[in-house]
Design brief:
The complex is a heterodimer. Chain A has one domain: MetI-like fold (Orthogonal Bundle), CATH 1.10.3720.10. Chain A is mainly α. Chain A is built from 11 helices and no strands. Chain B has 9 helices and 10 strands. Classes of the chains: A mainly alpha, B alpha/beta.
Chain lengths: 261, 254
């Protein structure tokens, strides 16, 4: 039995752990803590979830957050991939841009919040910008690394078969060869970007949003609703990751034997 | 046509300590149209460097290489190459690998697939049309590499120890198939190897190189008709002669 089959047949172990955790959480919340503010129980959270669904803004929150996220991740791809390609393929561009990238990269995305507000005001773009700062470097670095590690033999084989211009070599040889690495970078960027979301929404760029509502309910001391938003953030992040993994497997598994990302 | 003329070829590589390493020195060689020439020499004697220069992937320090009278200055569609390492594009299926050169030339999909299928058939891998290189054995990969190099119909085919990484049985089989392909397509083939057995089995003419710097030490014409029987007394005799050639002091000492 191989690894995947074993994981499939043992799925109930994971489900059991989830149920046990919920039961334990309920017991601790009800009988040991006994205070919704300090630790809302699963049933408190379920009730809060139902009333939030009835309130009708939940979908709006998800929508607004996805807009922020799409702006940030989209910009990270549009800017990170071309710069990564240019730096990975042309040594002089690498030498030119590398110091700037190395200085900007360690600045935490949240440190950009003041400038996000100054430059873009309290808008969706402003939240997107913070997510962009978190997401762009994994995309850029992985694209760069992928292009740097294109085997020379592929480039030479390409040249011998009439693929000689830089533009063609990038398109037909380097990009496909580097694509698994680029995809891994996008996957990391998705995770990092999603983590920046709560912070990006906490400075009041919108009336809706998962992160915005998390702070809003914290300020109202409705901790059961806070937990609802926490879980939603986690589940949507998980869904992104699973979708991505599924896509990567379908895209690359037929030609790559090892684990891609 | 496929006449290859190499004149006074020298290749120096500058080293970090300021000295230069001479990989090939003053090498002259003529390969005639449709001839099968094996270049035999020890590891590090500049065989690969020689082939890379003919391919246009490397530039000579002095001397020149002429193909049908025209000087080679860079990769040229008239010259095909099969590398020692696996060089198939892993993201492309077998058919798309073979059709790659035609795609770069701007052939439409149906046309390039039609041509690629002919060469796929030539190397006997029709049923692996849609497979990816990672799904093929080493021998099959090199067959595809041969088909890919031939698909652009070059006049000269360069082969850099193409069967070096294969087991002995597969290697013998591929040598046999290569001769069949050569009979059918009549290319000029320049085949680099360090195996005397391989050279004697394949070549019209064997060129023995000295250790670094690579220079031509001996020429030897193999006159036995093909197919040659590796187990025959005749074959053993020729192999013995070639072994003696490469072991004589002027060929084995630099």
């Amino acid at each position: 039995m191989n690894h995947t089959e074993r994981r499939r047949s043992d799925w109930w172990l994971g489900a059991l752990a989830l149920i046990l955790a919920l039961v334990l959480w309920e017991i601790i919340a009800d009988f040991i803590v006994g205070d919704v503010f300090y630790l809302p129980s699963p049933s408190d959270v379920t009730l809060a979830f139902i009333s939030l669904v009835q309130g009708g803004t939940l979908i709006m929150d998800v929508e607004v957050s996805l807009i922020h996220f799409a702006i940030g991740l989209g910009a990270a791809l549009v800017i990170g991939i071309p710069i990564g390609i240019a730096m990975g393929w042309y040594k002089r561009i690498d030498a030119f841009l590398d110091p700037i990238i190395e200085i900007l990269r360690p600045i935490p995305p949240l440190a950009w919040i003041p400038f996000a507000i100054v430059w873009f005001g309290l808008t969706n773009v402003s939240a997107g910008f913070v997510i962009f700062v978190g997401a762009v470097f994994p995309v850029l670095i992985n694209t760069y690394t992928g292009f740097r590690s294109v085997p020379r033999i592929f480039v030479e084989a390409g040249k011998m078969l009439g693929c000689t211009k830089n533009r063609d070599l990038i398109r037909y040889i380097a990009l496909p060869s580097a694509l698994p690495s680029v995809a891994a970078g996008v996957r990391i960027a998705t995770g990092v970007g999603w983590m920046c979301l709560v912070a990006a929404e906490l400075f009041g760029v919108s009336k809706f949003g998962l992160g915005q509502k998390l702070w809003y309910f914290y300020n109202l001391h409705q901790m059961d609703s806070v937990v609802v938003y926490m879980i939603l953030l986690g589940l949507i992040g998980l869904a992104f990751d699973m979708l991505f993994r599924y896509w990567i497997d379908r895209r690359f598994l037929k030609w790559r034997t090892g684990e891609v990302a | 046509m496929g006449d290859l003329v190499i004149q006074n070829l020298t290749r120096n590589f500058p080293r970090e300590n300021g000295t230069t390493l001479t990989a090939i020195e003053n090498l002259s060689l003529t390969v005639h149209d449709k001839e099968f020439v094996c270049v035999l020499g020890p590891s590090g004697c500049g065989k690969t460097t020689l082939l890379r220069m003919i391919a246009g992937l490397d530039t000579a320090s002095s001397g020149e290489i002429l193909l049908d009278g025209e000087r080679i200055t860079g990769p040229n569609p008239k010259v095909g190459i099969v590398f020692q390492e696996y060089s198939l594009f892993p993201w492309r299926s077998v058919i798309d690998n073979i059709a790659f050169g035609l795609e770069m030339r701007g052939f439409a999909r149906t046309e390039r697939n039609r041509v690629a299928e002919q060469y796929l058939d030539l190397v006997g891998l029709t049923q692996f049309r849609e497979s990816y290189p990672s799904e093929l054995s080493g021998g099959m990969r090199q067959r595809v590499a041969v088909a890919r190099a031939l698909a652009l119909d070059p006049v000269v085919l360069l082969m850099d120890e193409p069967f070096g990484a294969l087991d002995a049985q597969t290697r013998n089989m591929l040598q046999h198939e290569l001769l069949d392909i050569w009979e059918k397509t009549k290319k000029t083939i320049l085949f680099v190897t360090h195996s005397v057995d391989e050279a004697v089995y394949l070549a019209d003419r064997i060129v023995v190189l000295t250790p670094r710097p690579g220079q031509i030490c001996e020429f030897f014409s193999v006159v036995q008709p093909r197919p040659r029987d590796r187990t025959s007394v005749e074959f053993a005799k020729v192999r013995r002669v070639v072994l003696d050639l490469i072991n004589q002091p002027k060929c084995s000492l630099s």
